[in-house]
Specification:
28% of the residues lie in helices and 34% in strands. It is globular, with a radius of gyration of 20 Å. The protein folds into 2 domains: 130 residues, Rossmann fold, CATH 3.40.50; 165 residues, Tumour Suppressor Smad4, CATH 2.60.200.40. It has 316 residues and is of the alpha+beta class. Helix 1 runs parallel beside helix 5. Strand 8 and strand 9 form a beta hairpin. It contains 8 helices and 18 strands. The strands form 4 sheets. The protein has a 6-stranded antiparallel beta sheet with strand order 6-5-18-15-8-9, with helices on one face. The protein has a 6-stranded antiparallel beta sheet with strand order 14-13-10-7-16-17, covered by helices on one side.
Length: 316
C-alpha cells in the first residue's frame, strides 16, 4: 500500500453499552473525545452493539476489513469496550492476525485486562491505546464441544471447573443483583451443597485421575472479578499455568476464598501449581467457565498458543 493512498489508520471501537450496568454507555462520549482529540488523523468507527452475536460479527468484520500494516504508522486496530465477554470476542477476532487489539474495560470483572497489565479504569486504558505501544502475547487455545457450537476458541484468562465455576454459573443465572456481593452470596449458597469433583486430566500426555475442589488452567492470572486463580501466570512464557485445590473441608474452602483476591491462598498445602503445554480437562458434572462465560462441555483440550495476539499494553 502506498502512503499516498493510506489515509490514516482506522480504529474500530465495538462497545457493549450495557456493560457495568450501563457504565460503558455513560463513559463512551469521553472515550471518543479522548481518542479523536489525541490522535488527529485517525478514522474512528464506533458501533454500539445490540447483542452478543452482533458484537461478535462486528469484531470479525473489523478484523476482516483491516488493511495491511504500513511500517512506521499506527496499524488499523480493533478496540473493544465492555466486560470480559467483549474482551473475549475481541481477542478471538484478532488472534493469529496482524490486527492490533485495544482493551477499554468497562465491566464488573475486567479480569483479562488486569491479567495482561492494562489498567482496569477506563481513562488510563484509553491512554494506553493512544500511546500506541504493542506487544505480542500468548493466549490459550481450547478445542472440544464448546459453547455456541464452536469447536475451537482462544481464551484470554482462565478455564475453571469445580467450586468456582459453579459459583460463577449461579451468579450468571441470577435474575437480581447484589453488586459486588453477588459472588459472595452465590459462594455461600454453593458451599452448602458442594462436594469434591472427580477429574480425569491428561497433562502433557500423562493421564491423571483425582478429586479436587477447583482446577484452573489458564494463560493470564485472574478470574471471578479480581480473584488470583494463577498468581504466577506470565502471558509471554509460552506455557499454561495450572492450579489444583485438593479436597478440603467446607470450612477451609470458605476461609480460603477471600485469600484468592490477594493470591495468598497459594501457600496452603492443599494447593498444587505447575506449568504445562497441553492439558485435557474431563470429569463428571463439570461446568467449564472461561473469560466470565459458560464454555461448553468436557472434555476440553487446552494448549498454549505463544505470541498469537498483538495487544496495546503499557510501555515497559
Amino acid at each position: 500500500m502506498s502512503l499516498d493512498s493510506y489515509g490514516g489508520p482506522t480504529l474500530t471501537l465495538v462497545v457493549n453499552p450495557t456493560a457495568g450496568h450501563g457504565r460503558a454507555r455513560r463513559l463512551l462520549p469521553g472515550v471518543v473525545s479522548t481518542i479523536l482529540g489525541q490522535l488527529p488523523g485517525v478514522n474512528l468507527r464506533v458501533f454500539q452493539t445490540s447483542s452478543y452475536a452482533d458484537a461478535r460479527l462486528r469484531c470479525i468484520a473489523a478484523v476482516s476489513a483491516a488493511r495491511p500494516n504500513v511500517p512506521g504508522h499506527r496499524p488499523d486496530s480493533l478496540l473493544v469496550m465492555g466486560g470480559d465477554g467483549m474482551m473475549h470476542l475481541g481477542l478471538n477476532a484478532c488472534a493469529e492476525t496482524d490486527v492490533a487489539l485495544g482493551l477499554i474495560p468497562a465491566g464488573s470483572g475486567n479480569d483479562f485486562a488486569r491479567g495482561v497489565g492494562v489498567p482496569t479504569s477506563t481513562a488510563p486504558a484509553v491512554q494506553v491505546i493512544v500511546d500506541g505501544h504493542l506487544d505480542n502475547i500468548d493466549l490459550m487455545e481450547a478445542t472440544g464441544d464448546l459453547a455456541d457450537g464452536a469447536q475451537r476458541r482462544f481464551i484470554g484468562s482462565i478455564l475453571s471447573t469445580g467450586f468456582d465455576a459453579r459459583v460463577n454459573a449461579r451468579v450468571n443465572a441470577m435474575t437480581w443483583t447484589l453488586g459486588q456481593l453477588s459472588y459472595s452470596w452465590a459462594a455461600l449458597a454453593e458451599l452448602s451443597v458442594f462436594e469434591p469433583v472427580p477429574y480425569r486430566l491428561v497433562v502433557d500426555g500423562v493421564p491423571r485421575a483425582q478429586t479436587a475442589m477447583i482446577i484452573c488452567v489458564g494463560n493470564a492470572g485472574y478470574f471471578g472479578g479480581g480473584m488470583q486463580g494463577l498468581p504466577r501466570a506470565d502471558v509471554t512464557d509460552g506455557l499454561l499455568d495450572v492450579m489444583i485445590a485438593n479436597p478440603v473441608s467446607r470450612f477451609t474452602l470458605l476461609r480460603q476464598l477471600p485469600r484468592m483476591f490477594s493470591g495468598k491462598y497459594q501457600d496452603d498445602p492443599a494447593i498444587e501449581q505447575f506449568r504445562a503445554r497441553e492439558v485435557v480437562v474431563d470429569g463428571d458434572g463439570l461446568i467449564p467457565m472461561a473469560d466470565g462465560e459458560s464454555f461448553g462441555t468436557t472434555p476440553i483440550t487446552l494448549r498454549a498458543a505463544p505470541g498469537v495476539l498483538r495487544l496495546y499494553r503499557p510501555r515497559p
